[in-house]
Amino acid sequence: MSDSAQPLAIEVEHLVAGYGSRRILDDVSMQVRTGEIMIIMGGSGSGKSTLLRNLLGLNRPSSGVIRLLGKDPSGLNADERLALQKNIGVSFQGGALLSSLTVGENVALPLREHTRLAEATIAVMARVKLEVVNLGGFEHMMPSQLSGGMIKRAALARALAMDPKLLFFDEPSAGLDPVVSSELDDLILKLRDALGMTIVVVTHELESAFKIADRITVLDHGRVLISGPVEDVRNADSERIQDLLHRRSRPVHLSADDYMRRLTGE
Amino acid sequence: MRHIANSVGRAAIGLVEEFGYYLALTVESLYWLCWGRVRGQPVRLAATVAQMMETGVAAAPIVFMLSFAIGVMLAIQGIYTLRQFGAETQVVLGISLSVTREFGPLITGILVAGRSGSALAARIGSMQVNQEIDALRVMGISPVRYLAAPAVFAMLVMVPALTLFSDLTALFGAAVFCSFELGMSHVAYWDEAISFITVDDIMQGLIKSAVFGLIVALVGISNGFAVAGGAEGVGRATTRAVVLSICYLVLADMLFTYFLNR
């Protein structure tokens, strides 16, 4: 379990972000400790994907500070940023494997681009990573030949290629059957325990969230409802959190007049 | 009235933005091509060669067919026109100059835009949709270095090479027709053609074609990167890339011809 005395892997302070004039995240602050599994949870449109994109540096925040492994990516030059990126692994929702390369080449890609290792060494390392995710022997397949669960595992292997300190996992269980999704959860736990990685998982699957989380951050409409240990989240008083936890549909507060106006499109 | 001014203004800003993007893309691609190796992140030779094969070598048969047909067509038109002055034998002059200065580069450019410009837009666009570009970025692999630079280099080299090939093929097509129609021997035809064509004519065509190659690469790549909205977006980007690059190609051709012939 995580120790609060350990340094922070991720710090987000007063993050505001959006697309154009549309504000998606509003004053989001959260912290992830080294060696813990943090789940970012929230319904559709809660801003969790936007938060992830900002953490990964794919989007620029309008204001606020993000520090990954103690460094603010926006203040780094190209070489320093590259050094930071080598310590970060990402597994995207759809896998995002390069479809023109084989599974093995995909896993080897970061090694090939960022190290000067011999080709034979790279091939062995790629196979080792594939073994870690139980995909040994699949290195010659093309991504299009793999099933959904295998693609996620291959993407995880690629994210692990550079032995990152920080791992981001976007929707590990989306579109997978319960057994495969539970296997992935076990794999995430194993990675944290065996390699001491800090892992951030973005998901809306409650079951998997409570199974693997050390702490949970719940987002709703671009704001953090709660960020704390699993028990705190489970026992939170907030009605919105309880709605999310118990899969209750949102009550619609709309007056009859407003409803008529919406229907008639005025 | 205000509405019209508003849309014209927006279109103008969009155009400036687009050309700024092309410029940035060119500079960044050239940066990686020149300095990537020093920075320890080279533009991969294998990717570049593959792109050159795809853009250049694979296009050779269709360039041959089209250019041959263009050569024959120019010979037919030339002989028909000049016959009115009884000067059919002068046809070689017209053919040689119009092929090397105009038709070779233009036909090749349009063909490459249709073949490789669309392929670039579709490939990069579907990578964008599948988050593959995002994945490259978070792995610290510059998408410009990995995807754009090889394509830009391949176009800059292969489009002029194809143009040279197209020049020769079109001249050959015309030679075949002239030997049928005028009984002109191939030796006499080539002798005459070579005496008319100067290095300047060929160079004019080649410089143009390098610019055409760059246009096709930039328009294809930038439309690919700009894709949003799934499969439909990829289709739109592909169409846009082909239509836009052919438009820019013809406009650039006109400007070049004007300035190079003053």
Structure overview:
The complex is a heterodimer of chains A (266) and B (262). Chain A has 266 residues and is an alpha/beta fold. Helix content of chain A is 38%, strand content 24%. The longest helix of chain A is centred in the last third of the chain and has 18 residues. The relative contact order of chain A is 0.16. Chain B is built from nine helices and no strands. In chain B, helix 3 packs antiparallel against helix 4, helix 6 crosses helix 7 and helix 6 crosses helix 8. The longest helix of chain B is centred in the middle third of the chain and has 39 residues. Chain B is elongated and about 70 Å long. Chain B starts with a helix and ends with a helix.
Provide a short characterization of the protein structure:
The complex is a heterodimer of chains A (266) and B (262). Chain A has helices at 48-55, 78-86, 103-114, 119-132, 148-160, 178-195, 206-212, 230-234, 239-245, 256-264, and strands spanning 8-19, 22-33, 37-42, 63-68, 88-91, 166-170, 198-203, 215-220, 223-229. Chain A is an alpha/beta fold.
How would the blueprint of this fold be written?
The complex is a heterodimer of chains A (266) and B (262).
Chain A (H helix, E strand, L loop, with lengths): L7 E12 L2 E12 L3 E6 L5 H8 L7 E6 L9 H9 L1 E4 L11 H12 L4 H14 L15 H13 L5 E5 L7 H18 L2 E6 L2 H7 L2 E6 L2 E7 H5 L4 H7 L10 H9 L2
Parallel strand pairs in A: 3-7, 3-8, 5-6, 6-7
Antiparallel strand pairs in A: 1-2, 1-4, 8-9
Helix pairs in contact in A: 3-4, 3-5, 4-5
Chain B lengths: L1 H34 L9 H11 L4 H24 L7 H39 L2 H7 L4 H39 L4 H11 L2 H27 L4 H31 L2
Determine the N-to-C terminus distance of chain A: 55 Å
Strand order of the largest sheet of chain A: 5-6-7-3-8-9
- Count of helical stretches of chain B: 9
Number of strands of chain A: 9
State the helicity of chain A in percent bands: 25-40%
What Rg of chain B is obtained from the alpha carbons, in whole angstroms?
Answer: 21 Å
Q: SSE order of chain B in H/E notation?
A: HHHHHHHHH
Radius of gyration of chain A: 20 Å
Low-confidence stretches of chain B: none
